[in-house]
Prior knowledge:
There is one protein chain. The chain has helices at 34-38, 75-87, 97-119, 122-147, 154-186, 192-200, 224-230, 233-254, 280-304, 339-354, 362-367, 402-419, 423-436, 441-455; strands spanning 2-5, 8-11, 64-65, 73-74, 210-221, 258-263, 266-271, 312-327, 332-337, 358-360, 371-380, 388-396, 465-467. By secondary structure, the chain is an alpha+beta fold. It folds into four domains: 2-87, no CATH class; 97-183, no CATH class; 209-397, Nucleotide cyclase, GGDEF domain (Alpha-Beta Plaits, 2-Layer Sandwich), CATH 3.30.70; 401-471, no CATH class.
Amino acid sequence: EWLKVGPLTIPVDETASALIPYRGHKFSFPYLSLSDVIKDRIMPDALRGKIALIGTTAPGLQDLRSTPVDSVFPGVEIHANLIAGMLDRDLKQKPPYMLGAEVVLLVIGGAVLAVLIPMLSALWATVAAGVGFILIVAADLAVWQQGGLVLPLAASILMTAALYTMNMAYGYFVESRSKRQFTDLFGQYVPPELVDRMAADPRKYNMEPRSADLTILFSDVRGFTGISEALKPDELREYINEYLTDMSTIIRSQYRGTLDKYIGDAIMAFWGAPVDDAQHARNGVLAAIEMQRERGRLNAKFAARGWPTLKIGVGVNSGTVRVGDMGSQVRRAYTAMGDAVNVASRLEGRTKGYGVGILVGEATRNAVADVVFREVDRIKVTGKHEAVTIYEPIGLESEVDKDAHDELRLWNQALRHYRAQQWDQVEVCLLNLQRMNPACELYQVYAGKVAERRRQPPPPDWDGVTAFDEK
């Protein structure tokens, strides 16, 4: 492992080769021309007490070598560097046990990084890999400078880079697979932009059932049996497909709702899951209003084809429900269940009876501040002991004009008279309302209710609530 030259110990390997401690680039030692020495052009003090090496530097004499510090290096200066290292006792050594030290470093460092990096996010994994690089280089330099030992650096650096690269590649493929899974799981329910948002943090979202405050919407086509009888099968398919497509686009794309299911010609949707939506009630109401507007546009196209007029009823309600992947072992679906869902369905069923296109529950109305609502009635639906106030959304406050507000004030006055059993005053208000808005079927419905109350007066303590025994 070494050679003894007088008092000097020269570390060598099994082939008697030594590591050369280069001082720097070529010409780090003084060069003197041999002809100048022979012709006494060099002062004797320049050589006194020095070790002089005679060699060549001219390229044609073929004594130039490639070294770690320069690609072209005079061979004679290589010897000068080796002699200087021997005299300075600065020759580095690589004893056989350094191979064992390298293996231990690779095993320990590799194990730590292999366990640590997969547990971290991409950012912190990059930081950990960077710290690993720094520690490896620092340890190598410490061994080099303090112990005079050569510890190979390349294997440790390559190992760290390989572990980091493999982890990043694995993470990329896992993330891609996770995004595909999210697209498969939720793509049929929510718009693509929400799927992308969910895929960015997949641990935050799953299909496990949970309690959540949602807004639920039900929509159904009125008189569908008559429509199906009036159209040929191919026409009926096109009719219903166009209706479902346009309404689903409004729910998913415009107002970022979750499309739950189609029930024949009916649509069920909700807002607030799987992605939280602080404005779920507002979005549900605005989606219902836009669906009725889209119905008008569809009817213009259907009329041009000679198809029946499309009429839909929409019910919207908010409340705490159970939402998630539910069903049987045969078939499951991401859906919502609960009392608020049932009420939304009941409200949709009541739209035809009141002659309105949309009915909204009290909880939804209280959660929306910038929409004008008309109170329609206080009802008791099947399975509910407490009365529920139901409303019809008129439109955004910025879109409702003065005439509509005047009509709404007169309607509220009529409703107060109705609940106070002041039938004459109610009829006067309804006559004026019908003059203001002849197309509003709600006023005709209430005129019929007043006539019925006159024939069968309610008890004196009647609270103005309409009770329904059927769904």
